[in-house]
Each structure stands twice: as C-alpha cells, then as structure tokens.
TrEMBL record:
It comes from the Eukaryota. GO terms for molecular function: medium-chain fatty acid-CoA ligase activity. Gene3D superfamilies: 3.30.300.30, N-terminal domain of ligase-like. Residues 11-404 form the AMP-dependent synthetase/ligase domain. PANTHER family: ACYL-COA SYNTHETASE (PTHR43201), ENZYME, PUTATIVE (AFU_ORTHOLOGUE AFUA_7G01530)-RELATED (PTHR43201:SF28). This is Acetyl-CoA synthetase-like protein. Residues 478-557 form the AMP-binding enzyme C-terminal domain. GO terms for biological process: fatty acid metabolic process. It holds the Pfam family AMP-binding_C. InterPro entries: AMP-bd_C, AMP-bd_C_sf, AMP-dep_synth/lig_dom, ANL_N_sf. It comes from Coniochaeta ligniaria NRRL 30616.
Length: 577
C-alpha cells in the first residue's frame, strides 16, 4: 500500500529532523527509536488500519486506542491523524463501563490495542455497545528499522484531529474535539514560549489521555525534534534514580549500559513534585547528591508545573533542593491547551501567578459580579478599592472546536464577541490581574512579545462541582450519579476536600438507605469496593462521612463550599508535605 502521508505540519516537521536523532526511549528497557524510522512506521500502521477497515477513506471517523506509553502509542496517534481520522486515546486504567461510555459516545468505528491491553479491549468489546467497532491488535515496533522513504503529499488535513474526554459540570464526560490545526497551533505557541529544541530530553511520566501528557509532553516535542523518554506509571523512586543516572560515578552505577543522558525538560502536576520532595530524603546519600545535581538549573533546563494550583511551599522546596531551579507554572485546560504561562526568565516565575497569555492566545477577565469586561487599568473597583475578580475567557487558534455531539454544551460555554471577532470560551476559572514589580521585563527574544504587563493569579473555580485531585479533573455530579445508583445510598453530596498532597480530595457525604443498610453502617472500604467497577480509581471518594441530614436551601440546593467546611473540618491541611 502507498507510502505517502498527508502533508500535515507535524509530519513535515518530523521529516525535517535529523533522522539519526532519538525520538523515543523506553526508560526501563533502554529501547531506542529514531526520528528517521517514525514516518515509515506511521505509514505501516495507517495502512494496517485501512486494511482492517477495508477502505482508505476514514476521514473524520473516530478511532479509539488502548496503548501503553511507548513508541507504539506515538506511532498510533500519528497513524490515526494520517488517516485523517479523529484519535480517541483511552486510559487503560478505566473500568470497562467508562470505556464503554466513550466508545458509544464517540461512535468509534475502530478500536486499536496493543497486546498488553488486549484483555481490556476484549472486555469492553464484550459489553453492550451501541455499535461494535472493528478491533485491531497492533504488533509492537522493536526499533532499529531501516529508514523507509515516505512521501508527503496532499496538504488537506481533512477532519484529522484528537478527541479527549473530560469531566465537567455535566454528569457524564464530554468529548473535546481538537482538530489537528488546533493541536498544531498549541504546539507552535509552546515552542515559542518555552523554546523546546532538538537537544531537549523529556522524562514523560504522565497519562496519555489528557492534554498535558499528549500535547505538552508528546506532540510539541515531536514538532521540535526533542527526545521523549517514557517512564510510566509515575514512581517517585524510579524518577529519582533516572534523573541521577548520568551524574553517578561508574562505581555507583549498578548497570552502566546503555549510558543515560541528562533530563533537560520535565512537565508534571504539583502532586508529582510533592511526592518527589517527600521521597528525596529517603534516598541513599550518593543518590541524593546526584539528583540535586540533575535537577539544578544547569542540567534540568525547565521544570514545569500545571494542571492544578502549585502550592508555594512545594515551589520553594523545589528551588531549595535544586539550588535555584524555580518551577515554571502555567494554566491550561483540555478545551484550550495551554493558555497562560509564567516566563523563562527566573524573575518571571512569580509565586502564585500563572503569568501571561501565551503566544497566539487572547485572554480577558469578565467580572463575576457585574459581567462587565475588566479592561486593562480597571482591575481595582474604584468604589470599594478591592481587586475585581473575573472569569478567564479565551479565544484564538488554540481553542477546541466543539464538544462532540453536544451543540448545547458548546453554545453554553462560549460568550459571543462584541468586536466582530470569534466567540470567547468561558473557562469557569476565576482570576485577578496584578502588576508585579520586577517581572515582565525579560530581554530573552522569545519572551519579549508576550511576557509583558499585569500577571494573572488564579483564585479558584466558579463551580464547586469540579474537583481537581492530583491534576485529574473530576465531576462531583458524575460521582453522585454513580453513587445514587448504589442500593446503599439514599442521598449524597460529593465535595472537594482541600488536601496538601492532592490539591483536593474527593469527599462524599452520604445518607444511607435504611432499608438496604438497616444496621446504618457503611465503611469507606465498602464504598470503594462498590464503585470499583463503575469509576476509575481517582474518581472514587477518598473520604466518606455518613450523616442523617444534608442541609439544603429553599431551592433544594446544597451549598457545597459551606458543607465541606462543616463536615470535613478535620481533613483540612492534614497531609501537607
Ligand atoms: C491516584 N489516586 C488518586 C489519584 N491518582 N486519587 C486521587 N486523585 C488522583 N489523581 C489513588 C489511587 O487510585 C490509589 O488509591 C492511591 O491514590 C495511590 O495511588 P498511586 O498509585 O500511588 O498514585 P499514582 O498512580 O502514583 O498517581 C498519582 C499521580 C497521578 C499524581 C501520578 O494521579 C497522575 O498522573 N496525575 C496527573 C493527571 C494528569 O495528567 N492531569 C492533567 C490533566 S490535563 P487506592 O485506593 O487504589 O490505593 C489538565 C490541563 C492542564 O489538567 O492544565 O494541564
Ligand atoms: P482539565 O479539564 O483536566 O483540562 O483541567 C483544567 C482545569 O485545571 C482548569 O480549568 C483549572 O481549573 C485547572 N488548572 C490547570 N492549571 C492550573 C494552574 N496552574 N493553577 C490552577 N488551576 C489550574
């Protein structure tokens, strides 16, 4: 079959990179793959997809896949784009019922899996599906393939794109459609802002069904010719050992081959930094010394935190441990990719701030009380003298197209523009803008056109029904829905409980069903067991309180912000680092 690929910007970029440079390393096995073999392998996999489908026109069809964090994942994602289809990466950690929902909702025409996740694939395929997708098990690439020539022709990307599922203010996750033009715009914006380069070597420890792991830590480095080293699932001890490896003397290295390169780029969620800080002191002294060297600014060029608020104690502890590596915080969302970011200059990594709108992103604040746009210079309310808090609204080429098959939700989350331009996406996050002395003056050429003016500081979210736990977004309504389906539960409120380790923990306040639980006792363990087949582990409440009454207002609504303070008082700040 044809060895041609459509002329998508990502393929053009890959074709330009040094073919002998490394694209992917599997950290544990040391297996290495080169840029020169990537497009040939993408072509082969795209052709296998065509063969399985029995046709070569799959434009806009949804192709879901269950593949481990590896070169095979990279090839599969690109192969689906090459078929001008929409890639739907699935989390292998999800129970079959959650996967079934995504396959049904996305109307996937094909499910791909690796051999490793064939059992998960078969399990979901054995559930009641609206439409049974074709199933194809892909074989593993071994690396070292000859560099097959691939022709790029036909610039029309068609409907190629990616769809990520995200929980929100509705009770079932929504499909966020990111056309490849949006993915490309996001990658360009980040390369401009953070200067990804071929010499960058990323350590990748994040799941690959979210924007953070896919766009920031995979798609963008592919554009810039960087090396991605997969080490998944995240394990703090393994990360420390990997970071240390190039800085140990020969007698300290248990297995010196193959030699490990220094990690220059690390992008993770605050919980990961918290775990690393907590475990560092448990390392043997030689590893402690080598890891401190590894994360010093001289070696680790950039360590980024995002997906949830970065607590200042974590930021400070990382700076101390690394002799001056200041975490760069940025703000993003599945629907918009990365939107705001601090700058490369150390002075532009301001505590508590998420920085400025990234290149190509237009941002505004809309007063949460008056709905008026807070124009630059109007950040202080002249009558009260207080800062005006506003919802962050965004537009530009990096914003998603739509919620899949959900025009109502799409319309609801966009505010029409008054200047004839495109509508603004309403993030639901609330922030203030403040001038910061000494920041926003960087002379670094890549920073001059966007790290200027007042900086954004996030205050929180508009909705108490969205919980961020360890960087995972969880919908309180989705959990309530599943809990109400259990015979033990008569009433339930799911709340965000503040936590040092997780940012927020999922908490449940339950009134038991007296008929089904006559003894009136239900433990957290029993709850977890009951929910295990219905929800992925991070959505299952970590803390449970059984009560006789849940206070509601005259409209029957629960004030969750008050309730969490009343009920979970003792859980507050119990597990800070
Ligand atoms: C795991 N657990 C969690 C959890 N992750 N509980 C709450 N919240 C989480 N996020 C549970 C496990 O089920 C387990 O419970 C217990 O905690 C310990 O598990 P673990 O194995 O030690 O945890 P681990 O697997 O190491 O996961 C921690 C983590 C992971 C922080 C590495 O959660 C993670 O990768 N988070 C990042 C998610 C992410 O990529 N977010 C980006 C979204 S995009 P039990 O009972 O089984 O013992 C986005 C936009 C943007 O937000 O701006 O980037
Ligand atoms: P998700 O829907 O999983 O993409 O999560 C997006 C949400 O994560 C945003 O709407 C924010 O609430 C939150 N978020 C991302 N980055 C940050 C940050 N740096 N500080 C605070 N919240 C953040």
């Amino acid at each position: 079959m044809a060895s041609t690929l459509p002329q998508l910007p990502v393929f053009e970029a890959i074709a330009r990179h040094d073919p002998n440079s490394t694209v992917v390393i599997h950290s544990n096995s040391g297996r290495t793959f080169r840029y020169g073999e990537l497009l040939g392998d993408v072509c082969k996999t795209r052709n296998r997809i065509y063969e399985k489908a029995g046709k070569t026109d799959l434009e806009g069809e949804r192709i879901a896949f269950l593949i481990e964090n590896s070169y095979d994942y990279v090839v599969t994602l690109l192969a689906v784009l090459a078929a001008r289809s929409i890639a739907v990466p699935l989390s292998p950690a999800f129970p079959a019922l959650e996967l079934q929902y995504i396959l049904n909702h996305s109307e996937a025409s094909m499910l791909l899996s690796s051999a490793k996740f064939a059992p998960q694939a078969k399990k979901v395929l054995s559930t009641q599906l609206n439409e049974r997708p074709d199933y194809l098990q892909l074989s593993k690439f071994q690396g070292g393939a000859s560099h097959e020539p691939v022709t790029l022709e036909g610039a029309d990307p068609g409907e190629a794109g990616m769809m990520l599922y995200t929980s929100g203010t509705t009770n079932r996750p929504k499909g966020v459609l990111l056309p490849q033009s949006v993915m490309t715009a996001q990658a360009h914006s980040l390369i401009h802002a953070w200067e990804y380069a071929p010499k960058d070597h990323l350590l990748h420890v994040l799941p690959l069904h979210h924007i953070h792991g896919t766009i920031n830590a995979l798609f963008t480095p592919l554009f810039s010719g960087s090396t991605i080293e997969f080490q998944f699932p995240f394990n703090a001890d393994a990360v420390w050992r990997r970071l240390a490896a190039p800085f140990l003397t020969p007698d300290q290295v248990p297995d010196p081959s193959p030699p490990k390169k220094p990690i220059t780029f690390f992008t993770v969620v605050p919980t990961v930094y918290s775990r690393l800080l907590a475990t560092h002191k448990l390392l043997p002294p030689d590893l402690q010394a080598a890891t401190r060297l590894a994360i010093s600014p001289r070696n680790l060029r950039l360590s980024i935190s995002g997906s949830a608020a970065l607590p200042t104690p974590i930021k400070r502890s990382w700076t101390d441990l690394s002799s001056g590596n200041i975490l760069l915080e940025r703000f993003g969302m599945t629907e918009v990719g990365m939107a705001l970011s601090c700058g490369l200059s150390p002075a532009d990594r301001v505590d508590g701030s998420v920085g400025w709108p990234l290149p190509g992103v237009e941002a505004r604040l809309v007063d949460i009380e008056t709905d008026a746009i807070i124009q630059p210079g109007q950040e202080i309310d002249p009558t009260t003298g207080r800062e005006r808090a506003g919802e962050i609204q965004l537009r530009g080429p990096t914003i998603f197209r739509e919620y899949w098959r959900n025009p109502e939700a799409t319309a609801k989350e966009f505010a029409p523009a008054t200047d004839g331009g495109k509508a603004w996406f309403k993030t639901g996050d609330v922030a203030v803008r403040r001038p910061v002395a000494g920041a926003g003056e960087s002379d670094i050429p890549s920073q001059r056109d966007w790290t200027r003016g007042d900086m954004y500081f996030i205050l929180g979210r508009r909705s108490a029904d969205i919980i961020k736990s360890g960087g995972e977004k969880v919908s309180a309504l989705e959990i309530e829905r599943e809990m109400l389906a259990l015979p033990q539960v008569a009433e339930v409120a799911v709340l965000a409980v503040p936590s040092g380790k997780w940012g927020q923990k999922v908490g449940a306040v339950v009134i038991l069903d007296k008929e089904n639980v006559p003894e009136g006792r239900w433990s957290a363990l029993e709850m977890r067991r009951a929910l295990k087949t219905r929800l992925v582990n991070y959505k299952i409440p970590q803390v449970l309180r059984v009560v006789d009454h849940i206070p509601r207002n005259a409209m029957g609504k629960i004030n969750k912000k008050l309730l969490v303070k009343e009920i979970f008082q003792d859980e507050f700040s119990g597990d800070e680092i």
